[in-house]
Amino acid sequence: MPLFDKPLSELREYRPERVEEPDFDTFWERTLDQAREFPLDVVFEAYDAALSLVDVYDVRYSGWGGHRIAGWFMVPSGATEPLPAVVHYIGYGGGRGLPHDWLATAAAGYATFVMDTRGQGSNGSPGDTPDPVGGANPQTPGFMTRGVLDPEDYYYRRVFTDAVRAVEAAASHPLVDSERIVIAGGSQGGGITQAVAALVPGLAGAMLDVPFLTGYRRATEIVDTMPYGEITKYLSIHRDHEETVFRTLSYFDGTNLAPRCTAPALYSVALMDTTCPPSTIFGAYNYYAGPKEIRVWAYNKHEGGQTFQTRERLLWLRDLFKNEAAER
Questions:
Q1: Alpha-carbon distance values, 201 to 114, 136, 195, 198, 205 (Å)
Q2: Which residues lie across from 72 on neighbouring strands?
Q3: pLDDT, tens only, 29-42
Q4: Phi and psi dihedrals of 184, rounded to 5?
Q5: Active-site residue 150, yes or no?
Q6: Main-chain dihedrals φ then ψ at residue 96, nearest 5 degrees
Q7: Per-residue pLDDT reduced to its tens digit, 84-139
Q8: 92 is in an annotated binding site
Q9: Catalytic-labelled residue, pool 116, 131, 209, 273
Q10: Measured between alpha carbons, how far is 7 from 276 in angstroms, rounded to an integer?
Q11: Into which CATH architecture does domain 8-318 fall?
């Protein structure tokens, strides 16, 4: 696939018009207040992952609606003092998989928390968290239109809330330094990271690779790939729901969340990405309110930088905490 979106020089300056509802902030404040009516009730249970250098725990905690969310927690064996931590969110369709899938940050010396994504985990990696709430409207296959006629019912209201609670669950462990938590994810996980960076104050950093869930309307206008294509397909049938759908999506759009983010951030983007078009990513990145950097992979699609980007993330994390220590 050749370059199809705006030239890089334009992408670096691209700021699309933002459309957000006047109750955007109160919607999210009320959502999180409702979630916190349920005890977090975190359980860390030792898990035999056959890893001699990393201690692994199966995690369960209460997310949106008090629903039990699964996860993994890992720390370098022998750790006795609180560590910086990385909370990971997962790409579309995937689940938490197995602990050895998440060793990079643990091997680098960080506490590592992985959140399972409710209702997902049957595409690529297995998951263990059901979504006991169904959308109120008919939907296309997938998750993008589940409950899309009302922000109160929308699927990602539950997921973003689970993700906020994941930070709280990680912070509850005695081997986590709650003032040094970084959140991270790619694709859907990057979109979730962007939301959590907007909704949780005091984070040490955020790492967002080829983030999904941002610039919904533009994405549906310039690509026909899934998962944004789920929205297109839905609207091709439900022709009278366009404004209602995009009103709901505005509460979950990274372009509206980014101006509320203040933690230092590392983004990545792939210029040939027809799943998450570069302009949707730069549209959010350019609005991001905190200190930020972006790695550009010129000849890649949605795989982005892959292992090269993993190295960039580890270097960025090392520098982040080194600089923070120097400032203390």
A1: 20, 32, 12, 7, 11
A2: 58, 114
A3: 999 999 999 999 99
A4: -155, 150
A5: no
A6: -70, -15
A7: 999 999 999 999 999 999 999 999 999 999 999 999 998 889 999 999 997 667 77
A8: yes
A9: 273
A10: 16
A11: 3-Layer(aba) Sandwich (3.40)
Quick count: other Cβ atoms within 10 Å of Cβ 38? Answer: 14
- Residue 258 near residue 194 (C-beta atoms within 8 A): yes
Helix, strand, coil percentages, rounded to 5, for the chain: 40, 20, 40
Read off the tokens for 307. 């292992």
pTM: 0.97
9/248 Cα distance (integer angstroms): 32
Residue 286, token pair as written in the block: 């350019």
Q: Distance between CA atoms of 304 and 210, rounded to whole angstroms?
A: 7
Helix (H, G, I), strand (E, B) or coil at 87: strand
Please give the Cα distance from 27 to 36 (Å, whole number): 14
Which of 262, 279, 260, 263 has its CA nearest to residue 271? 279
Tokens encoding 203:
């984070």
In the annotation, is 302 catalytic?
Answer: yes
Quote the crossing angle between the two packed helices 155-171 and 188-199, to the nearest 10°: 70
Cβ contact 112:68 at 8 Å: no
User: Tell me, what amino acid is at 314?
Assistant: L
Q: Name the active-site residue from 187, 250, 268, 279.
A: 187
Catalytic status, residue 236 = no
Sign, CA dihedral 11-15-20-23, equals positive
Q: Which of 67, 88, 238, 302 is catalytic?
A: 302
Compute the average pLDDT of residues 15-37: 98
CB 194 within 8 A of CB 260: no
Count of helix runs (H) and strand runs (E) in the chain: 11, 11
Farthest CA pair distance, the chain? 59
